[in-house]
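Q: Convert this sequence to structure tokens.
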Amino acid sequence: MLKKREIALSCITKIIAGILSSSKLLIRMAIVCYFPLLTLSEAKHWKKNTAFLRLIRPDQPPFLSWLKFYYHQSRIAVWQKLIYDAFSKTLRHNDFSKTDALLQKKDEGKGLLLLGLHYGTMCSAYLLNQYNLSPVILSLPGNIPDISNVKKPERLSNDLLFKGTYKGFCFTGTEEKKFIEKMKEGNPGMIMTDVAPGNNRITTPCLGIDYPINRFPFKLALHNAFPVWVIWFSAIKGKGFKLNATELSFTSEQQGIEQYAAVLSDVVNQNPYLWHSGNYLIDNQHVTATIG
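A:
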């Protein structure tokens, strides 16, 4: 059940996104204003985030890494709200042309499987739905908010509305068969590679550590001959985001996981400050890594 505070913040987010989308200057001002708020909220992760930044930028002073990291995290927070709540108004600032290749693959009718890097998976699912790709998403139940108690749901941010009303969710651990059936009906399937129940993970070297990756999508793709693409967002200088997608080609689970880990390493190294909560990557007790 959504708390009144969450509902209020969601409503305010929707209004602010509409206002911000009218001016690039307002967008920049919002990013600057968000910077100290985000820095304070993330202060508890200081040690682990510092370890992560040292891992990917060992030759750079930690303070400079922190400034860049939180600036880009502020940028992500603002642009993500704009994508959800002012989608059509911000298209000129973003590059979503890669959806054409995904649409073509979908039209071939082979059952397209899209692997997301967690932080951007829900946002890219919302984006692809705007292009009539209608993805089916394999998700943890906790990621789906209960908005049935909201009296005026139309006032909510599209972020919460999408997660609370979209019919394309299947739940990890109980609805994998339903997920596969929907894919065979023509819906692209989306999976967060870091979400896996039980021991359904394979550990592989990635960014200098042993990183656990969900083996299910690779097993699924091989069994059903589904083409597999990795999708993620990157920043466009002076603008918003670009949707990226690259196809994997593998003949075994291990090979697929290694290819995915290689893409993950490249993405993090090329976009180090778009990584959200790098502490999860450092803490081997967690299996959640998030990327934008």
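The longest strand covers residues 228-235.
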